[in-house]
Specification:
- There is one protein chain.
- By secondary structure, the chain is mainly alpha-helical.
- The chain folds into two domains: 21-87, Fe,Mn superoxide dismutase (SOD) domain (Helix Hairpins, Orthogonal Bundle), CATH 1.10.287; 99-202, Iron/manganese superoxide dismutase, C-terminal domain (minor pseudopilin epsh fold, 3-Layer(bab) Sandwich), CATH 3.55.40.
- The protein is 49% helix and 10% strand.
- It has helices spanning 21-43, 54-59, 66-87, 99-109, 112-125, 172-175, 179-186, 192-202, and strands at 130-136, 142-148, 159-165.
- It has a three-stranded antiparallel beta sheet.
- β1 (130-136) and β2 form a beta hairpin.
- It starts with 20 loop residues before the first helix and ends with a helix.
- The model has no long low-confidence stretch (mean pLDDT 97).
Length: 203
């Protein structure tokens, strides 16, 4: 079964003024759609892999044929990363997390504000294109990691909980070279309920 582009859970303009409608339209309808198309193209001659979920493919990247491993990492990673990204944002988002996620953040980073600062710094300092991620490791602890390009935390045996896309296509129309401004604005649309659900499943 071919992988499919998931529908956005809100309108293109729903995250304004923090993320503009035109960026969302291009980011979802062009960039994410291309990752899906290229992933399916890579798998077209590997019928035994076509029924696997994208999570399974990326978790078992080392077992894939050499001829498609890079394509699955790049395009499959782009597909999964964006699929998570759309869901962990929402109109009327922002604020602070609650419950078990809030407790884990405080325990790991000292406070939510300290976590926010460290995450923002990781996102701002990721050289070139990539992502900043809050992940859960094998011991069910939170940690921050940044990854280049479209590499998925799953390839490092980490479960992704919250990620921020810092490729220029994610922000350049509105923020140009001002990546820190984009990062600061993004906190206003984080869907903490979805992030908490992901954390609960990961732990």
């Amino acid at each position: 079964m071919a992988h499919e582009l998931p529908a956005l859970p809100y309108a293109f303009n729903a995250l304004e003024p923090h993320i503009d409608a035109k960026t969302m339209e291009i980011h979802h309808g062009k960039h994410h759609a291309t990752y899906v198309a290229k992933l399916n193209e890579a798998l077209i001659s590997h019928a035994n892999l076509q029924s696997k979920t994208i999570e399974d493919l990326l978790s078992d990247l080392a077992t894939l044929p050499d001829s498609i491993r890079t394509a699955v990492n790049n395009h499959g990673g782009g597909h999964l990363n964006h699929s998570i990204f759309w869901k962990t944002m929402a109109p009327g988002g922002g604020g602070t997390p609650a419950g078990g996620l809030a407790d884990a953040i405080k325990s790991t980073f000292g406070s939510f504000e300290e976590f926010k600062t460290k995450f923002s710094t990781a996102a701002a300092n990721r050289f070139g294109s990539g992502w900043a991620w809050l992940c859960v490791d094998k011991s069910k602890k939170l940690l921050l990691r940044d990854f280049p390009n479209q590499d998925s935390p799953l390839t490092a045996e980490l479960k992704p909980v919250l990620g921020l896309d810092v490729w220029e296509h994610a922000y350049y129309l509105k923020y140009q070279n001002r990546r820190p401004d984009y990062i600061a604005a993004w906190w206003n649309v984080v869907n903490w309920k979805e992030v908490a659900d992901r954390f609960a499943k990961a732990t």
